[in-house]
Amino acid sequence: MRKNLIERRKQSGYTQEALAEEIGCVKMHISNIENNKYGASLSLAIDISNALRYEIDPTGLIRKAFADSMTNSVDKVIKIAHELGIVFDPEKLFEVNEHGQQQTEG
After folding, report:
1. 74 with 29, same domain?
2. What are the DSSP calls for 51-88, one per residue?
């Protein structure tokens, strides 16, 4: 996710500071994620994706499942998403192709 996030952020014209301000966190948080010091929570990943115009939760169902399950476990959220018929693969967050477009599964 780290490399994809950096590439997507730069393509979108955001600095770390501007992205952090857009989503309501501090620059250090974005820096730590990009430097692989720790991962983003699902909620933060969704906020980042929305700011970068990369929809990972267009229906809002994943965020709802996350909130309803009251869990921090991404594995549990993936299971819930699957049960709802939503493809969610956190390892592929923010992937882009050579044209700067969101990758889609075929």
Report:
1. no
2. HTT--S-TTSHHHHHHHHHT---HHHHHHHHHHTT---
Question: Is 0.85 topped by the overall pTM?
Answer: no
Read off the pLDDT of residues 1-23 as tens digits, 9 standing for 90 and up.
Answer: 677 788 889 999 999 999 999 99
pLDDT in tens, 57-105: 777 777 777 677 666 566 777 777 777 777 666 666 555 444 444 444 4
Domain range spanning residue 3?
A: 1-55
Residue 102 in 3-state DSSP? strand
How many domains are there within the chain? 2
Calpha distance 20→9 (Å, rounded): 11
The partner residues of 102 in beta bridges, in order of sequence, read 96
Residue 3 DSSP class = H
Find out whether 5 and 48 touch, Cβ atoms under 8 Å: yes
| Separation of alpha carbons 48 and 31, rounded Å | 13
